[in-house]
Each structure stands twice: as C-alpha cells, then as structure tokens.
Design brief:
271 residues, mainly alpha, two-stranded antiparallel ribbon, 11 helices, 4 strands, 7% strand, elongated
C-alpha cells in the first residue's frame, strides 16, 4: 500500500499526488452513511403517510402491499446509489463526506472523473459494502493504491487534497535562489523567461503567508500563460498539483544554480 501515486504528463513530467488513507475514507464513508440514513428516515415517513392515505381510500390488499414494498426498495437503492453518483458528478469527485475529509475521486491516469467511471465505481459499492465495508477495507489494504473493487473496475483512485507541508524541504529563512540571481542556466533549466521565473519564485517564497483560498486563486493565474507558452498540460488543476509543478521548477533552478557554484568553486581551487 503506497502513500503517494506518481503520474506522468504528456511532456514526461512526473507529478506526485498523495493517496487518501483507509482511515480518512472510512470517516468520509461514515459521514455519507449518516446523511443517507437521514434520507431513509424521511423516505420511510413519506411512505407511511402515503400508505395511510392510500389505505384509507382504497383499502388494503396483498398486491398493494407488495407494490409499495417494491417501490420503497427501488427508491432506497436509488438514494444509496444516486447520492454518490450525483454528488461526485456535480462536485468533481466529492461527496459531502469526502469534501469534509478533503479527499477526492480522480481518474487513475490523472484528471477529473468521468460520469461512466462514477456510475461503475458506485454500482460495485454494494459488493464493497458487504460485512460493514469489510470487503472494501481488505481490498484497499492489499492494493498498492488503496483502491476498493469499485475503483479497480472504474480505473479511479481517491487522493488527499490536503496541501503538503514543504517546510521540511525548504528552510523558511533561506531563499531557493536570490531574487537578483537569474542566470541563463536557471532559465534554461526551467524553460522560463526572467519575469516568469521571478513571479513564480516570489510566489514560492511567500506561499505560506497566503491563505489556501488566495493561493488557489493566484497560482492558476500565474501558471496558465506559462503552461500555454511551454505547451505543457497538467491533468489536474487543483492547488496541490499546481504547487508540485512549481516545486519541480524551483528544484531545477536550485540544481542549476548549485552546479554553477560548484563549477566556480572548482575553477577557484584550480587557480
């Protein structure tokens, strides 16, 4: 079972995404189940009211009772299946429980989930739910990408949308590169123009001072013209994916600058 999944863009750029754990998916499932139970209670009350009215006017019969039971079972299934399908379709892979836990269903190869995949993964929810979701838990535990049967059939995975903490990788007091040092090697390594690099570099240094909402609005505006110019595509435009892309650019710039410094030190040692 992996914590991260790696996908490759058409430009052979590897992007890493964090897989949602069994625990977060279980809690999301509990929240969704609670909402579905509330819907079932409302459905039961509705059928009781309708049943009393029908019986009072037409009388009771075995045929009527069977039909009412069949309709109730059918509607209950529609609620159970349709709840996830509708929410995941309207909110791009998130039911209310998933939204609360900040996780989302996406396609295995990257990008938003399709309606066909949503329908398939939720049809198999009945099987995954056997034994109080014991089947789903076992399958998720043994698969490398924490997938239940529905995910395997639909070609989907569930990822975490928690914004990664980069503080362990970068010292907050240390700049990735000096603002004034934008060498040809750095520009060649990243493919950026000086102004593009300066904008992304400044964003990267100050991102932790911004709220998640501000970062979600600013970064797409900064990256969109750069992606178009470079002819690059990112399968998922969510903030974690965009910041991973910028992180890789900053890593390339950092490595290029370190190489320049190493060569300068070697030259100085020789003289």
């Amino acid at each position: 079972m992996q914590d991260f999944d790696i996908i490759e863009t058409p430009e052979n750029v590897e992007l890493q995404r964090r897989l949602a754990g069994i625990g977060s998916r279980f809690i999301a499932g509990l929240l969704d189940t609670f909402l579905i139970i509330l819907m079932y209670i409302l459905l039961l009350l509705l059928f009781l009211i309708l049943g009393i009215n029908i019986i009072s006017h037409a009388g009771i019969s075995d045929v009527l009772g069977v039909w009412m039971l069949a309709i109730m079972i059918f509607v209950a299934f529609l609620i159970y299946w349709g709840y996830f399908v509708l929410f995941e379709m309207w909110t791009n892979g998130q039911s209310p429980g998933k939204k609360y836990m900040k996780i989302r269903v996406v396609m295995l190869e990257g990008g938003g989930i399709s309606l066909n995949s949503i329908a398939i993964r939720n049809l198999l929810r009945v099987v995954d739910g056997l034994g109080m979701y014991a089947v789903a838990g076992i399958v998720m535990f043994v698969t490398h990408k924490v997938q239940r049967l529905g995910d395997l059939a639909a070609g989907t995975v569930v990822i975490s949308e928690e914004i990664p903490d980069y503080s362990a990788r970068y010292d907050k007091k240390k700049k990735v590169l000096d603002d004034e040092i934008i060498t040809p090697a750095v520009l060649e390594a990243t493919g950026l123009k000086p102004q593009e690099y300066r904008l992304l570099h400044n964003y990267w240094l100050r991102r932790e001072e911004l709220t998640i909402e501000a970062r979600s609005q600013i970064l797409p505006q900064l990256l969109q013209p750069i992606l178009v110019r470079l002819g690059h595509s990112i399968p998922d435009k969510s903030l974690p994916f965009l910041e991973i892309y910028v992180e890789k650019l900053m890593d390339k710039a950092n490595k290029a600058q370190k190489e320049i410094e190493r060569e300068a030190n070697d030259s100085g040692a020789e003289t």
